[in-house]
Amino acid sequence: MPALDLGGNGKKSDLPVLTAKDFASEQEVRWCPGCGDYSILKQVQSVLPELGVPRENIVFVSGIGCSSRFPYYMETFGIHGIHGRATAIATGLKASRPDLDVWIVGGDGDLLSIGGNHTLHILRRNLNVNILLFNNEIYGLTKGQYSPTSPVGFVAKSTPYGAIDHPINPLAFALGADGTFIARTMDRDVKHMREILKRAHKHKGASFVEIYQNCVIFNDGAFEAFTEKDVKAENDLFLEHGKPLVFGKNNDKGIKLFGLKPMVVDLTLSDVSKDDLWIHDERDRTKASILTRFFDEPGSEHYMPRPFGVFYAEERFCYEDAMLDQINLAKEKGEGDLDALLRGKETWVVD
Amino acid sequence: MSEVHSRPIRVETKQDVTILFAGDSGDGMQLTGTQFSETAAILGNDLNTFPNYPAEIRAPAGTLPGVSGFQVQFGSKEIFTPGDKIDVLVAMNAAALKANLKLLKEGKIIIANVDGFDEKNLQLAGCKTNPLEDGSLAKYHVYPIEIGKLTRSALEGTGLSTKEIDRSKNMFVLGLLFWLYTRPLDHTINNIREKFKKKPEIAEANIKALQAGYSYGEATEIFTTRYEVKKAKLPAGTYRHIMGNQATAYALIAASKKSGLPLFLGSYPITPASDILHELSKHKNFGVRTFQAEDEIAAMCAAIGAAYGGSLAATSTSGPGMDLKEEAIGLAVSLELPVVIIDVQRGGPSTGLPTKTEQSDLLMAMFGRHGESPVPIIAANSPAGCFDATFEACRLAIEFMTPVICLTDGYIANGSEPWKFPTAKDLPDITVKFAAPRNAGDPKYLPYKRNDKGAREWAIPGTKGLEHRIGGLEKQHETGAVSYDAENHALMTKLRAEKIEKIADAIPLQTIDNGSEKGKLLVLGWGSTYGTIKTVVRDLRLEGYDVSHAHLTYLNPFPKNLGELIYNFDKILIPELNSGQLARLIRDKFLAPVIQFNKVQGMPFMESELKEKIIAILTEKEK
Fold first, then answer.
1. Would A296 be classed as within a structural domain?
2. Which of B419, B442, B459 is a domain's end point?
3. Distance CA B442, CA B445 (A)
4. What is the ipTM of this complex?
5. Rounded Cα–Cα distance for residues B315 and B449 (Å)
6. pTM of the predicted model, to two decimals?
7. What would the mean pLDDT of B142-171 be, rounded to a whole number?
8. How far is A50 from chain B (nearest CA, A)?
9. Domain range spanning residue B577?
10. Residue B3 domain-assigned?
11. I want to staple B84 with a disulfide (CB 3.0 to 4.6 A). Which of A12, B223, B364, B606 is the partner?
């Protein structure tokens, strides 16, 4: 695996040295005490100084929801938009200003329900932006309705008899939309989150990062099977490019592929070696697709551990670059002349 | 082409002529009409056109719903409408005749394609007998011509299939009409060569058919008269032919040039607005970015994103798209960013009449968003007028940092006329001043601090020291910080409204277009009814009636003197292609007792119906 280049694309040497504090705005943060959003805000603020992008070139764009208040807390440029449309606003911004560093922040309702369509299209167009999906499997700001990622049977204010909607699998959706960078992390693992944020930023194209985020008020503990120390090792699978898929308290379990079928194998048994395991390859779309399907609830039969890390990364041209290329190509053949345009091909004179 | 006639032919001079080319939607009538009109324009006639076509791409052939028409009025006098009643009806089949016969003046010409009146076509059109033979057309000059057969024989031996040959029959008709109205073929020949650059055999076949039609006129015994329409006496200058949507697109490019801002258009295809997107996407050499969005909402939101980044941002749509954009327009009101929203109105509600015209989005433009959300509104009054209205919308958007709605409609968007086009030099500059960078120690940047116009500064990302956040939540005066304070909300609501009201200081006063400043009756119009009202008022004044015409371009805010102006008249008549939307606004604002004249048929006013209404009012037949 190539070493990570943590420098951004800015000219680092000319920049004043900034710290996380420089990225915190004066606005008082108003999330509920204990909300997972605090951790994400802190990690983003601490990662940005390392990216080497001038602060004035950074724009955070959001929609509506608890997480969409994010831009207010960042000492960068920011737009708090309307519900579901952050990706559409960001598309216009990035397409017209490729020089800017654009981050999109939204929740599961914002990006996958009301804004699902725009999320699909920004991913396939592959604008060079970073999309942070704060998934808490609940509608928080409207005070506790089930969300498109809530599990079947989920009891909430609008589902007293349990939700009957089959939930969205966000990463399978993003991969299905031909997203070029797909990753998952969690609010409780700050080191991992920082690493994923840096990788997402470094990727040229639309980076889609799902962050498991705990809503302490309406859906507390939704992800505790993946975030709590005592169970996490058995339930989580941390992906590293070029490394075998190993998990378990003592790294004693692995994933082996039998054709296209993944199976958990016990590494303590003498007939299984790490060399036989599935080696993670971020560039393998088929394998990434299988990984996104590791989506069962812990404890279910044939449970496969929930993967965290970069599932998939692919280089593909960015929309804004192609747009600019077409403009430059057209200009090479001759810059537009307004008089010639207004005059058109045929004119006549009235005396 | 020889102009020496082999037989005695009279050439009669006409002041104005209205022709309707009608056929199946696959018969190429739009192309035929356009070519005829362009040639008329180049010959110096004034003209106005009206394409009228079904919403279906290929409605069932031969049926009444499948009829597509292109009407053009051209003349040696000033022409403001495509004409009420027609002088020549070109009917490619029985359905085209049946659908349009009521428009034909008595004693005038029908050129009928006999091949389109066979048993099958008659049945599809619901004709029990053949009108070409049953004597029902005795009031007209009917020229039954085997257009299909003649085209086939003209193109025999070209190697083209019968199907391909049949597609050229519209060119035969065009050639014949060119002969009848003594027009040259060269403009159309050049256009055909250009259009079929990659298919020279098709180009040559079309040219051959065109020439065959012309020669047929010359050779056949049935025509004894040709007509001539002299140059119109238009204001001196250089002219070109232009369509409304094209003019709208050009205005956006011109405003981009004159403001020095790159142009961004976010748009989703919708009839009848798509041609704006098509036209702009051709002009990348002006740095134009066109974004065909996934939906209307994304188109508007992307425009907001581009405006935030410092582009001249626009979106183009029609009624159903406006419904979808309104929430985002409200966001632009709150963000106070300049975005030009072009609404090419069509018949509603819902999908309504996609290809038919209406002026029914005015109240929506005015009041269509939740909350108190004022937006300036401008309306275009003719195909060429789309240029002026759109350019002005750009100027106001930038100067006042606000979304602006520019209303055109299907009638003028697809219609065309000669245009005394401006030069780049003639157009005013649009001054843009972005907020300047700041250094450490400078006072804190205040994103919602306003200038004397009430506009905030345009602070674009990438500017050092201007990092700030804006959003749809209510903001504190000047600082822009989120605020739920009661007094502050009242203040911000007032400031947003006042800003739009102040636009009245930046627009021209309302003038009387035609007639005296005081009198018995003022006809007050807006938008695309201009041509009809202009023509009718002109004619009535010549007949001695005391009637004046004023036409509104600025619908919100109104020009400052409008109240004063309308009270100089005993009565005010407001003709609109809706159920009385401007009438409501005028009553509301000025408490003026206005008389409504409304039409919601998806069609523009007829001169005759408006004339009748005005005479009825002036002769007190109607109070």
1. no
2. B419
3. 8
4. 0.95
5. 27
6. 0.94
7. 94
8. 19
9. 519-618
10. no
11. B606
